[in-house]
Amino acid sequence: MNMPRQMVIAIEEESESILVEYGRHNSKFNQKVSPSLPHFETSYTTHDGLKLYLQAWLPETPKASLLLVHGLGEHSGRYEGMVSKLNKLGVAVFTFDGRGHGKSAEGKPTAYFDSYEDYLRDIDVLFGKGKNYLPGLPTFLYGHSMGGGLVAAYVLKYKPEAAGVILSSPAIKEAEGTSPILIAVSGLVNWFLPKLKVLKLDIAGVSRIPEEVEKYKNDPLVYQENIPARTGYELYQMMQFIQSQAGNFELPFLLIHGDADRLTNPKGSELFFGKAKSADKTFRLFPGGYHELINDSDRGEVMKEIVDWVGKRI
What is the pLDDT of residues 65-108, one digit of tens each? Predict the structure, then answer.
């Protein structure tokens, strides 16, 4: 692609133009990205005035586009390995740091957001931006963990036109044995102390590879503290919605989960797969797999599963 090192393109969105700058950037984060992949960064102001950090990687000759939605506590910069493989396939990857996460948080990450419905509105706008940037090409959605739940909820509520959906360890069902009393108490805490840090994540359950766990712990853009009450409550509401509406899901999808996942419940994936109406649906349950399958012991097989599935649909 004969692209100038710095090129500014205006993307029309409603009544405003957003300037997108292509080229290399000097931040430590961007030094991780392959210099052969055209990469851009910009920001988007949401309907309620928040500024979200956006980035994308474009292959030389795009054949499809994909919007990636990251998981709880993490950020969009943790997917370079998968981005590289998708780019080689010809898939342009668009992504963002969600509300309270990564570079979208003011100061340091908080993992706090008021409503999952607001998050769905963000996804809708950004998915549309990707489609408009590469019109006429197949478009995909990818969501991991919380992002997987949000993508599933988005498809169920907004009914977007997409060539397919990849759900990685999605948050669809609460942990087995969750007490109704605990749920009721969490509802009260949500109303009176929404930013109280109440839910501890099992960071050791991210991967069976110690080096990956250490990378997660040492990443300053990853939220390491307990999850705020409001965030946990909103994710519970999202999961209840998905469980009640899963039978209306009709898009093609690939669902992957590890059966040893301690952060999201694999039974939620089983429930979703069983209820979904999609004629084209695939579920891979990886024996012994931990939460981040693309960073786990079977990552080579997992990456191949994802790339092959997308490749057959573009």
Answer: 999 999 999 999 999 999 999 999 999 999 999 999 999 999 99
**Which is catalytic among the residues 76, 186, 291, 298?**
291
What ranges do the domains of the chain cover?
7-311
**Cα distance between residue 2 and residue 71, in whole Å:** 35
The CATH number of the structural domain formed by 7-311 is 3.40.50.1820
- 291 part of the active site: yes
**Is 261 an active-site residue?**
yes
> Which tens digits make up the pLDDT trace of 30-68?
333 455 568 999 999 999 999 999 999 999 999 999 999
- Distance, C-alpha 51 to centroid of its chain: 18
CA neighbor of 12 nearest in space, from 132, 123, 135 = 132
What does the chain come to in residues? 314
145 is catalytic: yes
User: One of 97, 261, 296, 298 is an active-site residue; which one?
Assistant: 261
Give the model's pLDDT for residue 186.
82
Cβ proximity of 238 and 171 under 8 Å: yes
CA-CA distance, 11 to 34, in Å (whole number)? 25
